[in-house]
């Protein structure tokens, strides 16, 4: 039947032409459309419908009355968040951690991948690769356990080594000036190997002819890296960077929470941990949602800016 | 043809899956029925009451390891004795609050819900106020007379809306709310040549002596002063959720507003930290490390729940055969008393879903049975002939020494027995040496110590508005805790404590105190 419509569409009035052409197009590739239905449903049901739940940020949400029965309070929760005496400090911590994370945790896998790429001995390369991405499979609770152990002032290996060169033991986790380095460092240790996988895959895709040609032209390894390897990696780097920017304020709750104690709280309280403590533990869902919404909006904003900039500068973009 | 084949195969598969699912369900239903059916077939009794109940696992190993708690032989025995058919839904201990709230949010509420205290605990998510749970007054009058007799008034009060007098839950009680105790290694004390310390000054003296003879942790410290709050207790400045005090100026404030005593307490902790009498890294010592430090014999003195004596004592002796441990009266402060914050008199409570109205009478009867003689015997010893024997009319039980046996006893004594006085199990404890020691400590020592304050349940609204000022049941509010720890670690001078109080007041503390005073004067769900 639809087939009939499409043939009719080509000959009939102009405004309906486009519509009918679309239907015809869809009919032609009906199998493709059909198999995409589960995916579309998945995103609708699990990603877009829950988005509507964000409205509880503007309500005093009551678990038993639901969204329809809870009273609307407008921007009260946002006001409360911005007027919280510690808000600026929490935001500062979140931003700083985000920046450090991009500066170190984002660039480290690229450098590591480039270094690994230069390793000629395949067996050695494979072993190193396996060892460095194994920690990714540990949970943050375990990672924090390991770090608390090695940083302990009484028994930790770090302080034992500091002792050899005559430095008194330092209580790293009890010192607020070290906590950001520990957070970024532990993240680096856990995920740097895992992060190299995509880059290594991209590196494997570079055509060897390029290198051969460069060699004939007299380019050394440095020259080759800068003129061939890096430019070929650039699209991947840009895409990953844009994805990373999107959740700039989303440093992750668990990885920070497991390292927190009252002695380092001033430099380690971030939006995620605050949401957990103030919102979820005390059941202030609306308040927690308001903070979460703020985070997402900032993330979206940054993503759009970065994407536009990147499109203009490099031609690479997410959309 | 090929297409037809594929299609028919898919249809067949779908049907088979569906049939598989349904037959599976049928299978479990049938097996669920068996335990109930057998007694019904034997006796002309009425059908067993079938009801579902949500229970926290409480970290009880036996429960967590059980493949299906509803098929456990003790649960089956319990069902037989009470003519019920339980459908126990376990709630993981560590995710209790989240899972309970999820349960209420999705409206998937079992017939009986286990709470952990009063009617406004966070795990209930306001269910009482929203009419989700059944008022029990009439049912208790009719079917729960034994419960009404057994459970003391202050426990019932916690489950009663003080404005309307409606009872919403059945409490399990803790008759002796002073549960934590001070422990000391008497063998080390002997070695150091010191008597049992009575005051905090003597305690510091003993800790120094421990240090001298090489004890690694003279006093076992722990993160956030949890189970390491002996000194705060001596000076009566806990500041926990149930530790509000009426001050001379007529206002009800958290007890840490007693600046003079608070400064002395912080000062003592600082001394302990500076001299290494408490681990220099106690701010990051978690519960498992804490336990390991103690049971591996590295600690001289610590604080722990008294009913752990048989278990921790045995583990310590396993690792260090020469170790001797005793519960001693907690060191006293300037006012001549000491000890730890008293517990809520209600440990667990059971609520009935308003939708289970037609089963409610039988459910109340089930809980009423919990305080009977038969229940006491069953939950203390287990099944007659299998776990214990009766000789000369008296039950004889061999106290298990292996993990499996102790796990099972703990499960019966403490978890499956839903309504009891949970201070200690009298029947089992009186069979062993350490058990008798523990009973003695509870009855003659702990009952006389500890700190009691004013508690608001439901919590003050101001505390919910200002999470930083909201204390936990055994931790100072985050804002105060942070400053206190910084003072102990020498980052801030102890003399600045008044400034901390000012900060507390300016960041919402004024509202907390105003509300506390008003509610205390109006006697509105305020417990002393």
From TrEMBL, chain A:
<dbReference type="InterPro" id="IPR051393">
    <property type="entry name" value="ABC_transporter_permease"/>
</dbReference>
<dbReference type="InterPro" id="IPR035906">
    <property type="entry name" value="MetI-like_sf"/>
</dbReference>
<feature type="transmembrane region" description="Helical">
    <location>
        <begin position="95"/>
        <end position="116"/>
    </location>
</feature>
<feature type="transmembrane region" description="Helical">
    <location>
        <begin position="187"/>
        <end position="206"/>
    </location>
</feature>
<keyword id="KW-1003">Cell membrane</keyword>
<keyword id="KW-1133">Transmembrane helix</keyword>
<feature type="domain" description="ABC transmembrane type-1">
    <location>
        <begin position="91"/>
        <end position="306"/>
    </location>
</feature>
<feature type="transmembrane region" description="Helical">
    <location>
        <begin position="137"/>
        <end position="167"/>
    </location>
</feature>
<keyword id="KW-0812">Transmembrane</keyword>
<keyword id="KW-0472">Membrane</keyword>
<feature type="transmembrane region" description="Helical">
    <location>
        <begin position="31"/>
        <end position="49"/>
    </location>
</feature>
<feature type="transmembrane region" description="Helical">
    <location>
        <begin position="226"/>
        <end position="245"/>
    </location>
</feature>
<dbReference type="Pfam" id="PF00528">
    <property type="entry name" value="BPD_transp_1"/>
</dbReference>
<dbReference type="GO" id="GO:0005886">
    <property type="term" value="C:plasma membrane"/>
</dbReference>
<dbReference type="GO" id="GO:0055085">
    <property type="term" value="P:transmembrane transport"/>
</dbReference>
<dbReference type="InterPro" id="IPR000515">
    <property type="entry name" value="MetI-like"/>
</dbReference>
<feature type="transmembrane region" description="Helical">
    <location>
        <begin position="285"/>
        <end position="306"/>
    </location>
</feature>
<protein>
    <submittedName>
        <fullName>Protein lplB</fullName>
    </submittedName>
</protein>
<keyword id="KW-0813">Transport</keyword>
<comment type="similarity">
    <text>Belongs to the binding-protein-dependent transport system permease family.</text>
</comment>
TrEMBL record, chain B:
<feature type="signal peptide">
    <location>
        <begin position="1"/>
        <end position="19"/>
    </location>
</feature>
<protein>
    <submittedName>
        <fullName>ABC transporter substrate-binding protein</fullName>
    </submittedName>
</protein>
<keyword id="KW-0732">Signal</keyword>
<feature type="compositionally biased region" description="Polar residues">
    <location>
        <begin position="24"/>
        <end position="35"/>
    </location>
</feature>
<feature type="region of interest" description="Disordered">
    <location>
        <begin position="24"/>
        <end position="48"/>
    </location>
</feature>
<dbReference type="InterPro" id="IPR050490">
    <property type="entry name" value="Bact_solute-bd_prot1"/>
</dbReference>
<dbReference type="InterPro" id="IPR006059">
    <property type="entry name" value="SBP"/>
</dbReference>
<dbReference type="Pfam" id="PF01547">
    <property type="entry name" value="SBP_bac_1"/>
</dbReference>
């Amino acid at each position: 039947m639809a087939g009939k419509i499409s043939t009719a569409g080509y000959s009939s009035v102009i405004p309906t032409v486009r519509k009918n052409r679309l239907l015809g197009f869809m009919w032609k590739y009906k199998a493709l459309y059909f198999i995409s239905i589960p995916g579309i449903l998945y995103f609708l049901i699990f990603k877009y419908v829950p988005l509507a739940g964000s409205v509880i940020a503007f309500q005093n949400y009551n678990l038993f009355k639901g969204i329809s029965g809870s009273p609307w309070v407008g921007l009260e929760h946002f006001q409360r968040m911005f007027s919280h005496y510690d808000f600026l400090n929490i935001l500062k911590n979140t931003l700083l951690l985000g920046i450090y994370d991009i500066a170190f945790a984002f660039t480290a896998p690229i450098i590591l991948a480039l270094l690994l790429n230069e390793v000629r001995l395949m067996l050695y390369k494979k072993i190193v690769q396996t060892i460095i991405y194994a920690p990714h499979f540990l949970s943050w609770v375990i990672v924090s356990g390991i770090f608390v152990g090695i940083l302990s002032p009484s028994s930790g290996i770090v302080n034992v080594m500091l002792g050899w060169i005559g430095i008194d033991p330092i209580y790293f986790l009890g010192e607020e000036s070290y906590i950001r380095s520990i957070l970024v460092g532990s993240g680096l240790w856990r995920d740097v190997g895992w992060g190299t996988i995509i880059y290594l895959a991209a590196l494997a895709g570079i055509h060897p002819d390029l290198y051969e040609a460069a060699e004939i032209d007299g380019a050394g390894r440095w020259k080759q890296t800068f003129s061939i390897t890096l430019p070929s990696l650039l699209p991947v780097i840009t895409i990953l960077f844009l994805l990373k920017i999107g959740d700039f304020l989303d440093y992750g709750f668990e990885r920070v929470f497991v390292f927190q104690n009252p002695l380092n709280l001033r430099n380690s309280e971030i939006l995620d941990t605050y949401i957990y403590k103030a919102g979820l533990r005390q059941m202030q869902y609306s308040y927690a949602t308001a903070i979460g919404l703020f985070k997402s909006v900032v993330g979206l904003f940054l993503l759009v800016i970065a994407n536009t900039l990147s499109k203009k500068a490099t031609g690479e973009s997410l959309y | 043809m090929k297409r037809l084949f594929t299609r028919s195969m898919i249809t067949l598969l779908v049907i088979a899956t569906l049939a598989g699912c349904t037959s599976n369900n049928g299978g479990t239903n049938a097996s669920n029925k068996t335990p109930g059916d057998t007694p019904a077939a034997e006796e002309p009794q009425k059908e067993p009451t079938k009801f579902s109940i949500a229970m926290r696992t409480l970290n009880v190993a036996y429960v967590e390891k059980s493949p299906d708690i509803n098929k456990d032989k003790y649960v089956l025995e319990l069902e037989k004795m009470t003519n019920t058919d339980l459908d126990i839904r376990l709630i993981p201990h560590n995710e209790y609050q989240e899972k309970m709230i999820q349960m209420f949010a999705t409206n998937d509420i079992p017939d009986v819900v286990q709470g952990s205290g009063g009617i406004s605990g966070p795990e209930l998510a306001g269910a009482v106020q929203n009419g989700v749970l059944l008022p029990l007054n009439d049912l208790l009058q009719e079917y729960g007379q034994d419960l009404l007799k057994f459970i003391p008034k202050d426990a019932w009060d916690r489950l009663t809306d003080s404005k309307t007098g409606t009872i919403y839950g059945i409490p399990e009680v803790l008759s002796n709310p002073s549960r934590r105790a001070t422990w000391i290694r008497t063998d080390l004390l002997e070695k150091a040549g010191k008597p049992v310390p009575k005051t905090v000054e003597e305690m510091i003296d003993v800790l120094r002596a421990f240090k001298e003879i090489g004890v690694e942790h003279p006093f076992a410290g722990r993160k956030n002063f949890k189970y390491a709050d002996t000194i705060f207790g001596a000076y009566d400045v806990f500041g926990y959720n149930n530790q509000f005090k009426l001050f001379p100026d007529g206002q009800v404030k958290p007890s840490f507003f007693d600046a003079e005593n608070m400064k002395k307490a912080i000062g003592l902790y600082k001394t302990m930290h500076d001299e290494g009498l408490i681990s220099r890294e106690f701010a990051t010592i978690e519960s498992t490390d804490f336990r390991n430090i103690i049971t591996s014999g590295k600690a001289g003195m610590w604080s722990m729940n008294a009913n752990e004596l048989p278990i921790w004592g045995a583990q310590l002796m396993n690792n260090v055969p020469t170790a001797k441990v005793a519960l001693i009266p907690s060191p006293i402060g300037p006012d001549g008393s000491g000890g730890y914050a008293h517990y809520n008199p209600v440990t667990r409570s059971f609520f009935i879903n308003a939708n289970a109205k037609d089963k409610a009478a039988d459910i109340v009867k089930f809980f009423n049975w919990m305080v009977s003689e038969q229940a006491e015997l069953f939950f203390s010893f287990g099944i007659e002939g299998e776990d214990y024997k009766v000789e000369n009319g008296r039950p004889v039980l061999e106290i298990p020494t292996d993990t499996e046996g102790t796990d099972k006893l703990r499960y019966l004594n403490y978890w499956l027995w839903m309504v009891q006085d949970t201070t200690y199990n009298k029947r089992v404890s009186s069979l062993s040496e350490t058990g008798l020691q523990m009973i003695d400590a509870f009855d003659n020592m702990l009952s006389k110590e500890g700190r009691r304050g004013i508690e608001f349940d439901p919590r003050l609204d101001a505390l919910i508005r200002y999470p930083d000022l909201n204390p936990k049941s055994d931790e100072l509010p985050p804002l105060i805790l942070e400053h206190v720890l910084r003072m102990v670690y020498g980052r801030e001078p102890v003399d600045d404590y008044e400034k901390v109080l000012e900060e507390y007041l300016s960041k919402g503390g004024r509202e907390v105190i105003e509300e506390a005073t008003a509610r205390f004067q109006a006697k509105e769900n305020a417990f002393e």
